[in-house]
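Slack export, channel: ligand-projects

TW: morning all. Re-posting the request from yesterday since it got buried. We need the structure predicted with the small molecule present, not the apo form. The ligand is flavin-adenine dinucleotide; the SMILES is in the block with the sequence. No rush, but it would help planning for next week.
GE: picking it up
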Amino acid sequence: MKRRTFLIGSLSGLSVLALSSCVPEAPTPTGTPTPTSTPAPSLVPQPAGMLRSSWSEDPFARGSYSFAAVSSTPQQREDLAEPILDRLFLAGEAVSADAPGTVQGARGSGQRAARALVDLAEPGEQIAVIGAGIAGLAAARQLADDGFTVMVIEARDRLGGRIETVANDSWPIPVELGPSFIVSASTNSLDEELTGLEVSHTEFLPVPEVRTPAGAVTEVSTVGTDAVTEALAWAAEQAQDTALAKALVATGSAELSMTDGDAGVSDADWLDYQLATATTLETGAPTDEMSSWYAPEPATTVADDTRIVLGGYSTLVDDVATDLEVLYSSVVTRIGYTETSVSLRLGTGESLTVDRAIVTVPLGVLQGDVIEFVPALPFAHRGAIAALGMGTLDKVWLRFDEPFWDTEAVLWTTVGDDTLDFRVWVNMMPLTNEPILVGFVSGEHALALAAVDDTAVTDAALRSLEPFAVLATATPAP
Ligand SMILES: Cc1cc2nc3c(=O)[nH]c(=O)nc-3n(C[C@H](O)[C@H](O)[C@H](O)COP(=O)(O)OP(=O)(O)OC[C@H]3O[C@@H](n4cnc5c(N)ncnc54)[C@H](O)[C@@H]3O)c2cc1C
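GE: finished. pasting the full token output, ligand included:
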């Protein structure tokens, strides 16, 4: 099934019109109506276990990671890092200019804030770090090692924030609801540190297996990457930044053919494929909000320094937090600052005053006005918070009694049905010998699924897996 108007909701009203005009008119029914057929029963078995994230619904994340929204600039991440009255410092993945949206970017920004603070502080000062994600813990670790008295204040009853590893007896391997990958491993030391902590991780260099709704394996066409590349090149020449959706329309993507080729896949399907399995997956952003100036270029080759963590990302968090003082289940609701101190009010009504503070709550929390800053943050900080976007990526982990699929591929993607929510899957079988699949959903599909219950998410996930069950059933193994 295809919506045919797949860019609706992602493109501007203009583009929706343009696309609708490309959809062949449905023939007017004549004669006796045909009886409605009942959908074929699913070929994908019910899983034995399911776990999911819904980061946009999480009050202490309000999204998955930051993205470059239309008219925002990388400089605004630098603006966020500027100390405020030399007392207040912001950190976290959104504050990282070189690696936003990553574990190493968040950690680096926490360490940078700690260094800036140390340069200004007197020995013995009392410091509060708000947020026990990797940015906050990295900052606190450095400050504690430098001899400061540090209190980490965390809203949740656990460490790690968006790093969330679930380890329980129902699952044979640790389940990562946040990050699974070490991105750009050659430029940071995360893999060595995880090795030192005896956390297993391995290279992740898969060539994606692409399947059509009928389950046929097909070669990736360059139509989608070419369309996005052309749109970004056009946008780079414009006087003002535009949404990627508008740039796509301006460069003719709305006129891409919707007529299926031999494999049942059209040119428009290949653009949808590029957006769903790469551009939106990477940013978490809908194309009508994403900057064309700073959108990711379509990758022509798979990065050869990505690693997948199999033994539990949270071990890193626990290690950084060793011996740090953490106040759990404590939501900061007000931050007052002067030239001499910082006062914090908690949701419980308690208050405390410290010499300086590092605030590492996610961008989504800062945008939500959950925390009252008194006085209001400086103009440049507020401008950056409003301008940057918070994207959405969610995961579903499905555990089966045995594999129902017939492929050894590690990375699965689908093309030709834009109504499927989970367009990217990691097959953990070749990596761990466990019949576990991890599905990824991003952008508007993720926002819609975050609001529904586990049964509806499981149904959506199983439907998205149909292309991988078809062949296994059609050609049973000898
Ligand atoms: C689904 C998903 C997949 C990802 N995949 C990858 C990946 O494969 N590789 C990668 O490198 N990165 C990945 N990331 C991004 C990475 O997880 C984040 O960039 C990083 O963990 C952010 O760390 P942080 O410390 O900035 O924020 P957080 O981890 O969010 O920490 C902020 C902390 O502040 C706390 N807090 C919030 N509000 C308050 C309050 N009012 N008072 C007190 N405390 C508060 C929160 O509870 C949280 O603990 C992924 C993220 C998601 C969601």
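GE: first-pass observations. The domain at 65-163+313-390 is CATH 3.50.50.60 (FAD/NAD(P)-binding domain). Residues 111 and 139 are 5 Å apart (CA to CA).
TW: perfect, thank you
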